[in-house]
Design brief:
heterodimer, A: Sufe protein. Chain: A, B: alpha/beta, Aspartate Aminotransferase, domain 1, 2 domains, four-stranded antiparallel beta sheet, globular
Chain lengths: 149, 409
Amino acid sequence: MNDLDDIYQELIIDHNRRPRNFGEPAKSTNRAKGHNPLCGDEVEFFIDINENKIINIQFIGIGCAISKGSASMFTEILINKTIKNALQITATFKKMITTHNFTEDLHELDDLSLLSGISSYPARVKCAILSSHTIESAIKNEQNIISTE
Amino acid sequence: MIDSEKIASDFPILKRKINNNNLIYFDNAATSQKPIQVIESITNFYTSTNANIHRGVHTLSMEATNLYDRAKERVAEFINSTDSESIIFTRGTTESINLVAETWGRANLDENSEIVITELEHHSNIVPWQELIKETNSKLKYIPINNDGTLDLSNLDQIINSNTKLVSITHVSNGIGTINNIKNIIKQAKDVGAITLIDAAQSAPHMPIDVNDLECDFLAFSGHKLLAPTGIGVLYGNKKLLEEMPAYQKGGDMILEVTYQKSSWADVPFKFEAGTPNIAGAIGLKSAIEYLMNLSMAEIRNHEIEITEYAYEQMMNINGIEILGPENIDERAGLISFNIPGVHPHDLGTFLDSKGIAIRTGHHCAMPLIKKLGSHSSARASFYIYNTKKEIDKFITEINNSMKYFNHV
C-alpha cells in the first residue's frame, strides 16, 4: 500500500466532513438512488435539468469518506455542465479509478482527479464508483436502484 | 495461562510487515492464522504419505486412511462426542448446515412445520432455511434480540411450540459477539420434540464445546477459524438421526454396492461423504485441534476474556464510541464490533491497515442483524490466542489517531 495521504487527500477529507450541496432540494427533474450492498453505503442524487443543462445537483446519503467525498465533489463539478459533458466526466472518472497509472488528460475532472490514487486500492474502488454510476442513472432517469454488485 | 508471545512465534505469517509495521491480526472471526505445526502436517502428508483413502491395500493408502480416521477421532474428542462415526467432514459450517437442510430438512418438513432461528444468525444459518421453506411450504420464525444484542427469550415458549420441527441457532454471534445460552434453548426445543442444530463456527475455536452435555442433534463448525486450512469443516450429528437421513451428494466413496440398476449407501458417516474427501485438510484439522487441546480450550477462553475486557474498557473511553453487543463479558466472545464518530468503518479499516492492523469492516455476513441494531456497517476486531495486550494498546492509539486524521479542521 502507498501512503495513506494518496487516497485521503486533504480536499476529500474536507468534502467528507462538510459535504457540499447536501440535502434534498424542493425541485428536481431527475433523481436516482445508489446502494453498495456489501458495505451498506447509500446515496441519492437529485438533478434539475433544463435545456440539456444541469442547473442544480444535490445529494443525500451515508457512506465512507471516499463515497461521500466524491459525491460532494461531483456536485460542485457537474453544476452548469451540459448532459453530454457530464456523462463524459463520469466516464473519464470511472476509467481513472479503475485503471492503474491512468495517463489520459484529467483536466475535465478538476478536483475529482485527486481521487486517482484509489486505483491502487482495489478494495475501495466501489466506494468511489457508486456516485458516478448513480449520477449517470439519474441523468438517464432510470427507475432502478443502482447497485455496485 | 496462555503465553501469547510464545504462541505467536509458532505463526510464520505474524512475522510479516504490513505497510512497514508489524502485522496485528484482529480479523480472527473471519479466519485464523495457521501455526507451523499445521502447515508442516500438510506438507508432510503430501511429501511422504499422500494416497487416496479407504480403498487401497498399499502402504500409503493405509497410512493416509489411518491419519484421516484419527482426524475424526480427534474432532470427536474435541467436542466430547463418544463416537467418531458421528463426525462428518464437510467444506465448512456453510456446507454442514446445507447438508442438514437438504437431507433431514427435505425429508421431514411439511406445510405444518416451523423452523426457529434467531435474529443473530450469520447468513449461512438464514439462507438455507429460507430456501428450504419455499420447497416444503414450512415456516421460518425468529427469536428476536434485545437492544444490547442478547436474545429476547420472553416469548420463547410461543416461538418454540408443538409445530417446531427444527431449532437452528448460533452459539456465538459473528457480527457482535453475543454468546447465547444454547443449553436452555436446546432443552426447550427437546421438550416439544424438535431437532436442534448449533452453529458453532464462532465458538468452537474459542471455548470448550461438549455435545454430550448440550445434547444437541447437530453441531457445525469450520476448520479454518481454528488454525486449520480452509475447505475442511465438521458436522456432528446424532448417530440415530444420521442413520435415518437420506444421503447428501451421491457418487464414489459413499456407496456400499452399485449395480447398473441401483445402489445402496455406505454406513454413517461415509454415506454423507461422497467423492475423495479433503484428506490433507482433515490432517491439518487434526493437527490444529491437537495444538488447541494442548493449550486447553478453557485457558483459551480465559485469555480471550482477559484481552477482550482490556480492550473493551479502553474503547469505552473513546469519546462517542458505540459498541454493539452485550456489556457483560460472560455474554461476549473475544470480539468487539463498534462505530466511532466521524470515521466510517471502511475508512477506519483502511487507516488501520496502513498501520499494519487488520480488522473487518462492513456487515460481517449478518446484514439483517446490523440493520436491526440501527447501523449500516461496523468495524470489528476479533481476537485469538496469539493476540496480546500490547497489540490492543497500539490498536487503541491508532483508533484515536484515525479520529484526528479524519476529523481535523
